[in-house]
Each structure stands twice: as C-alpha cells, then as structure tokens.
Design brief:
The chain is mainly α. 56% of the residues lie in helices and 4% in strands. The protein is built from 16 helices and 3 strands. Strand 1 and strand 2 form a beta hairpin. Helix 8 packs antiparallel against helix 9, helix 13 packs antiparallel against helix 14 and helix 13 crosses helix 15.
C-alpha cells in the first residue's frame, strides 16, 4: 500500500479530485488544520493511507453542515474520537469495530468524565459520521450502528427559568452596567433568542425595519431557519442604545470591538446574576427558559408561546407548562393535608 507521507502528496491527491478539494474549501479546512485534527505528524506510520481516506471523510462529513457553530462542535467531537483511535493504533475507517466505539464511550465517561448527555451526543456524532462513510462506500458497514447510548434523563424542573422579579433584577443590573450587556439580556429574556442568535444579531437586521407597523428583528435561527420577530418599544430602544449610532455591523461587541461570542456572553450573564443577588445557577439558556415560563405566567396562550420560542414540537413548550406548576400541584401536598386531618 502506498502511503501519502508528505504534505505535497496530499495536495496532489486533493488536486486530482476537484470535488473533494471543493469540500475542503467549503468546510474551511486547511492541511495544517487537518494535521492538528488527526494529532499526528505527516510521515508518521499511523498516518492514514489514501485508501483509508479519513482526512477526506471528515472534511466531507463536516461540509454537510452550513452552520458554523454546528460544524465547529462536530469537528471537536471528531477530533476527540480520531485522536483516541490514533492513540490506540486504530485507523478510523479500517480497524474500528463496534467494541472499539463502545470502549471510546467508556473513555468519555471514565477518563474525560463527560456526563451522559455529552457522551450520547458524541457517540451520535460518531455514528452519523460512519453512516455517511457507509453511504459514500468508504466502509462496508457502520461499526457504531448498534452502540449502546447512555440514558439521558432531563428533570423538567430545570426548564423553569427565572421568575419575573429575578428577570427584573437582572435587567436592572445589566442596564446599570452598559447598553451592550443590557441588550444581550433583553434579547434572550424578553425575545427568547438563543445565545448564538443574540451574538449574531447585526444592526441592519433591525435598523429601519418595519412590517405592518411593527419594528422587527430578522434572525437566522437554529437549523438555519429564518425568523422575523416584533420588537416592543422597550426592546427596540435597548437595541438602538447598544448600536450607539452605528447603522451596520455586529450589535453586540466586546471591548476589543470584535463580535460577542458565546463564552463571553455566558461570563457576562453569570457575573450580572451574581451582582443582582440571584442565587440560582444562571446561564444564557436559562434566560430563554425564563422567556417561555414568564410568557405562560403572563397568560400568553400555549400556541403563541410555541411560536414565539420557535419550538418545532409543541410538546417541548407543553413540558415547560407542566414543569412550572409541578410543585404546586404535587400529590404530596394533598396527601399531607389528608393525613393531618386524622
């Protein structure tokens, strides 16, 4: 078997197949980045052969996803898996069997100490990666097809966000800090945006935009689904103040002038909650949860809340409705009162 043991050799192999070269271009991959992904130097004996095509399989898989956040997340997952394979002298498209993927799952649990949801997610990414390798006839059978995924149980009570008074305290603290932090909290807690959606808001997405008399904000939501949201006057003023006279570019910016990222947004929200005296573990998605539960508490019909939160499945919104009253309606209260009479 002839190995591609030089960077120039891989360049020649890519050049011969313009489709594969296009995949690298779309994905934003470079040969240097692939070297880091595989965690092995060119010329090493563990480097995959062109017949193995691991490099190209990874690039082809990631290029399916147009959303940069999704692609970055899946790249991290595959990097962890490929590095584990190479550490155990396994070529991902030649040597890996079901037992190896099972062992990789135990590695995630016991060595990396990942939680059940993270382990399930990463094993699902590996399974999907092999699904498309099988479709592309790079392998004959998906070794991860029957891998056991850990059970992921979600406590519905964790879907309950901050109450109206806690949201009010957080908004007050954010307003006192600076217009950018205030706009961030407003977008998530009063408009239901996900943190990535809030970070990606551009000034031109709401500046001088009106539909049927409403000021509006246009966003690209989860799964690259466009959405147009009405902006109440207080929300519009918060966004206008954050824009600070600018008419184009990212609305939310760090002190360096760069667009706000998810991690910085999470740090800001956590710090604001601490200064506001909120003792709960506050993170950006909790503000989106707060949008749903406070809308329901305000009397907004369940169907309208589903539309506002952009939940594809109405059962998702319904679980919020059940969770917010679970403790009030719990059988323990009735039983305790019944037994106390005796």
């Amino acid at each position: 078997m002839k190995w591609v043991d030089t960077e120039r050799g891989i360049q020649r192999a890519l050049f011969k197949n313009r489709v594969l070269l296009a995949l690298f271009t779309i994905t934003g991959f470079s040969l240097r980045r692939l070297k880091a992904l595989m965690h092995t130097p060119f010329g090493d004996s563990t480097l995959v052969a062109p017949h193995d095509a691991t490099y190209l399989a990874v690039a082809g898989f990631l290029s399916r996803y147009g959303n940069l956040n999704t692609r970055t997340l899946y790249e991290i997952d595959l990097r962890i898996f490929v590095r584990w394979c190479l550490d155990h002298q396994l070529r991902p498209l030649v040597d890996v069997k079901r037992v190896h993927v099972e062992l990789f799952g135990r590695h995630l649990e016991e060595i990396r100490h990942n939680g059940p949801s993270t382990v399930a997610h990463r094993l699902n990414v590996v399974k999907t990666f092999y699904d498309y390798c099988e479709i592309d006839e790079l392998i004959t059978r998906n070794p991860a097809r029957h891998v056991r995924l850990p059970k992921v149980w979600v406590d519905d009570m964790k879907k309950i966000g901050l109450d109206r008074y806690e949201v009010g305290a957080l908004l007050q603290q954010a307003r006192a800090t600076d217009p950018t932090r205030y706009a961030l909290v407003v977008l998530m807690a009063m408009c239901g945006l996900r943190v990535s959606e809030a970070c990606n808001v551009q000034i031109e997405d709401f500046h001088d935009r009106q539909i049927q008399g409403h000021r509006t904000l246009s966003i690209m939501g989860k799964g690259d689904k466009p959405a147009t949201l009405p902006l109440p006057p207080s929300v519009y003023l918060a966004l206008r103040d954050a824009a600070d006279g600018r008419t184009r570019g990212s609305l939310l910016r760090r002190a360096s002038g760069e667009q706000l990222d998810r991690r910085t947004a999470a740090r800001w929200v956590k710090a604001l909650a601490k200064r506001a005296g909120i003792t709960k573990h506050v993170h950006p998605h909790l503000l989106r949860n707060s949008y749903v539960t406070n809308s329901l508490d305000a009397g907004v019909p369940l169907r309208d809340v589903q539309a506002g939160a952009r939940h594809e499945d109405p059962r998702t919104t319904y679980r919020y409705d059940l969770a917010r009253k679970n403790l009030d309606r719990h059988a323990n209260h009735t039983l305790a009162a019944y037994l106390a009479v005796g």
